[in-house]
Amino acid sequence: MVTTMIMDAAKTHWAMLTNWLGKNSTKKIIITCGLTGLLIRMFQEFYMRNRLKRRLGEKQKKLKQGIDEMREKISSLNEPVNELLSLTELNLIELRQRMANRSLTPKKLLHAFQLKALRLFDTGNSGISEFIREAEQWADSLMSSQADENLPNRSPLHGIPVSIKENISVAGYDSTVGLIKRCNQPNKKDCVLVRVLKAQGAIPFVLTTTSQAARSMCGTNAIFGDAKNPYGNSRISGGSSCGEGVLLAQRCSPIGFGTDIAGSIRIPAAFCGLASLKPTSQRLSSLGMTNIAEHSLVCLQACVGPMGRTVSDLAFAMRTLLTPAMFNLDPNVPPLPFDETAYKGDDKKSLCIGYYDNLDDPFIIQTVPVIRKNIQQAVMALEKAGHRVVRFQPPNPSKARDLFMRLLFADGGRELRSWLAYEPICPQIRFVNFVLGLPNWVRGASDLFLAALGPKPAAICQTLGGARNVQAAIDLFTEVRKYRQEFSKAWEDAGPLDAIVCPVSAYPAPPSSARPMFISPSVVYTGLYNLLEYPAGTVPTGFADEADEKECMAMSSRPNPNGSWYGSKIASMQKGIQGLPVVVQVVGQPFREETVLRIMRTIEASRSSDRKD
Fold first, then answer.
1. Whole-Å CA distances, 199 to 168, 169, 264, 369, 370
2. Which pLDDT band, with edges at 50, 70 and 90, does 610 fall under?
3. Which of 113, 157, 350, 367 has its CA 20 to 30 A from that of 72?
4. Distance, first Cα to last Cα, the chain
């Protein structure tokens, strides 16, 4: 009915226009043309939003049907519920042991995690986008071939259910990336990573949500619901692998896989207290995955990597994937199997490890005390383990930040804005979308204003302008290459180093009410290593306590190091951090993931030792 009214109004307006063209003044003609354009624009807006609304309704109807089927299947199980749920509390090592001695079957373990995931889904904060219906068939297939297989030759994830971030393409399922316009467009085939996991006996059983357009840390998703931090619903879960972070932190999956282009694995892992690994960009295959930024990103590649509760979980995942199965399916992946010697430390007993607890630059957001304290604790653990630890400061961090942001929005944000058109946009993305729509001179003036006012770390508007022509793009590539060389030289001069320990973020999980200007600048702590293409992982080191919160509150009431109100506001955001997880980042040289995991394991072991003491 509404559409009919709009069409009638358009016809009436057109009749008026043709009549006036013959007998009225130029002024009235111009006004009428303007009103006509406005009417067309309003009709287009109404039509497109109504179309998205229908598409969302269709998608949610299918989702409900899938959930109802899963609920019916789980309710018909004859296995004791408490026994199944107890299996989800076991770590991956224990699950593998039970699988090896045949006291646990792949199908029973799958049912356990499906039951747990379904219960969590009903709470409204599971991080799940869809249950994979075929998981039952894959488990049956494993059980039918179980007797014929040689146990020692099985992969570390054989028979283990795994969760998959939604943009890691699975045949028959959407990769919406939080965009309604991408609903009801199922992938035609599995990506290489999923094919290898299935070939190695892992069972993908759920897809997990992303933040909108995979470009924010807030966890907002208009299709599947928002992913909130399990340690406090008023805190953000991080992004874009927010669904994985939420699911794993609530023990609803033994191990999961996300993607990382600016910290999308490491940030949710940090905010949700998980171990994670962003490998070198070509160490694991990303062939066949959904990429909605393929026409806007340059010199940056989305890296797929594991997320879990312990470092050994990540090592199991890497061992499973770094096999001829992956090397044969993707010729761009170098045939480098998992290096057990480097992981165990047999090749080099004592390492030279650099560290920093803050990026000391007035244009970079500064870390809060609890982050610095945990870096120092990690340093002490490494020294106690016999490693040489030296201070290190990345060269010119504000330049690195600018280069990274220019690469991230190399097209000036045109592709992102086209994806966001007519979508219900979350506040964090809305701010970025607004800035991307400003003329270049306005963005430049905004940065000057912000720098003069005090919040220098938020003065990044100009970096979103993109490369305006071919020569500008070539100049950008040259600057990136030179910075990578500069960083490599600093790395060598400081040691040479084997790895670095540093912050993942300037603070623990921030409140969901925080404005984007206090959230987005923190991405420099992870984005630096996407710019450099260095592997980086996260390892939990503890939780913020009452003393940490009090120190931040005291800091918020006195002048901050940058001499502006911005740092004080960051400190005041730490109100309520007591009980939130704190995580540190470990960085290595390209294709040295095993060394990164080795150092992470040492830090993790020191935390376990402290608990016993």
1. 16, 16, 26, 46, 43
2. low
3. 157
4. 72
The catalytic position among 129, 155, 264, 522 is: 264
What amino acid occupies position 489? K
Active site residue 165: yes
pLDDT at 439: 86
Please name every residue paired with 389 in a beta bridge, in sequence order, or none if there are none: 353
CA–CA distance, 73 with 83 (Å, rounded to integer): 17
The predicted pLDDT at position 421 comes to 93
What's the pLDDT at 5? 61
**Residue 38: pLDDT band with limits 50, 70, 90:** confident
Asked whether residue 20 carries a pLDDT value surpassing 70, the answer given is no
3-state secondary structure of 77: coil
pLDDT at 13: 63
How many other C-beta atoms lie within 10 A of the C-beta of residue 303?
25
Q: Is the peptide bond before 446 cis (omega within 30 degrees of 0)?
A: no
* CB-based contact 112:227 (threshold 8 Å): no
**Residue 374 to residue 586: CA distance in whole angstroms:** 13
User: What's the predicted TM-score (pTM) here?
Assistant: 0.92
Average pLDDT over residues 548-568: 79
- Selecting from 3.30.2350.10, 3.90.1300.10, 3.20.20.140, 3.30.470.30, what CATH number does the domain 52-145+154-340 have? 3.90.1300.10
Average pLDDT in the 390-408 region? 96
Active-site annotation holder among 108, 116, 165, 181:
165
Instruction: Give the whole-angstrom CA distance, residue 90 versus residue 372.
Output: 32
Catalytic residue status for 505? no
Q: Which of 169, 240, 276, 556 is catalytic?
A: 240
| Residue whose token pair is 């984007």 | 516
CA distances from 533 to 119, 281, 314 (A): 39, 6, 19
Residue 569 burial (C-beta neighbours within 10 Å; 0-12, 13-18, 19+): middle
Give the Cα-Cα-Cα angle 124, 127, 130 (nearest 5 degrees).
95
